[in-house]
Structure to design on (267 residues):
């Protein structure tokens, strides 16, 4: 590097370490029954009431695990303890989680859970949406394709040769669209065919454009396989050119990290 280069670089504004953080946590190794009370203890009254409203124990446990993990991830990013994260009381279900002490609603948060996976995203500057889905979860994928895909997406899927590849492509479209619709805070209130996925020349989904009442909202997309190519697929949607930090961790590691500290370092 020449001196001139060095000076030029020094003149650049400092790049933040991250503007969007997305973490997929694999809770499959977690003894959910063994640590149920402990995880429940991290939740607030509102979350406990929701947990108590599930009819089936498996759904209740899934809720407790995913919301406790979500708290841990958000707490870690904020540099506070999980019990101290204060979420707003959602006016009704079907809303993204929000922090109570930020009237401007930033940082923006997004949560997704599927099978043993919990995905959390935090946007420091702008809204963010995350979705995780288990591979093989779309049994009726041809019906789903008919409802969620735009005309060009349908053409792309039908051009693929093998049924397994077509099914995988539909799942990828699904997570991409859901992440973008969650970033808008609307979810499936908006028909997924209004969210059109743009592919790179090599066929990877890279952006989503949502058309709403004649206006277009564009999101950058990061679609990835968080736990190897066969288990799950996840998408993060955020506004353009943000520094994204991605991580995939096991729940047991996350809990051990929480146990080993008196407080979280601000990230
Ligand atoms: C958000 C939505 C797409 C979730 O789909 P999903 O694949 O079943 O679930 P995921 O695990 O990926 O995401 C669930 C989380 O998304 C978040 N979420 C809920 N509604 C959201 C919205 N409108 N925008 C962004 N995030 C939302 C919540 O944190 C929720 O977790 P929780 O229910 O445990 O609190 C779907 O529930 C939805 O569109 N809801 C809004 C519309 C609605 O309420 N319709 C009425 C019922 S048909």
């Amino acid at each position: 590097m020449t001196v001139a280069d060095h000076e030029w670089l020094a003149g650049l504004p400092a790049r933040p370490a991250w503007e969007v953080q997305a973490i997929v946590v694999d809770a499959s190794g977690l003894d959910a029954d063994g640590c149920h009370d402990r995880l429940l203890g991290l939740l607030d009254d509102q979350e406990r009431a929701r947990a108590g409203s599930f009819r089936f124990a498996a759904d209740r446990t899934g809720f407790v695990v995913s919301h406790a993990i979500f708290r841990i991830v958000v707490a870690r990013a904020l540099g506070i303890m999980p019990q101290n994260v204060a979420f707003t009381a959602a006016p009704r279900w079907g809303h993204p989680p929000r922090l109570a002490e930020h009237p401007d609603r930033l940082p923006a948060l997004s949560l997704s859970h599927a099978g043993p996976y919990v995905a959390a995203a935090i946007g420091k500057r702008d809204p963010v949406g995350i979705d995780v889905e288990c591979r093989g979860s779309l049994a009726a994928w041809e019906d789903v394709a008919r409802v969620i895909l735009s005309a060009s997406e349908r053409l792309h899927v039908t051009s693929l040769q093998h049924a397994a590849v077509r099914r995988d492509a539909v799942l990828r479209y699904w997570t991409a669209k859901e992440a973008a619709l969650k970033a808008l805070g609307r979810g499936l209130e908006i028909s997924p065919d209004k969210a059109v996925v743009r592919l790179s020349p090599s066929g990877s989904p890279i952006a989503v454009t949502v058309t709403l009442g004649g206006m277009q909202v564009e999101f950058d997309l990061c679609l990835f396989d968080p736990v190897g190519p066969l288990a799950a697929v996840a998408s993060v949607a955020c506004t353009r050119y943000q520094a994204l930090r991605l991580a995939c961790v096991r729940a047991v590691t996350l809990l051990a990290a929480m146990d080993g500290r008196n407080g979280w370092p601000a990230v």
User: Anything to note?
Assistant: The first strand starts at residue 20 and ends at 26. The domain at 5-263 is CATH 3.90.470.20 (Ribosomal Protein L22; Chain A). The pocket of coenzyme A is lined by residues 94-97, 110-113, 131, 178, 182, 185-189 (CB under 6 Å). Residues 181 and 190 are 7 Å apart (CA to CA).
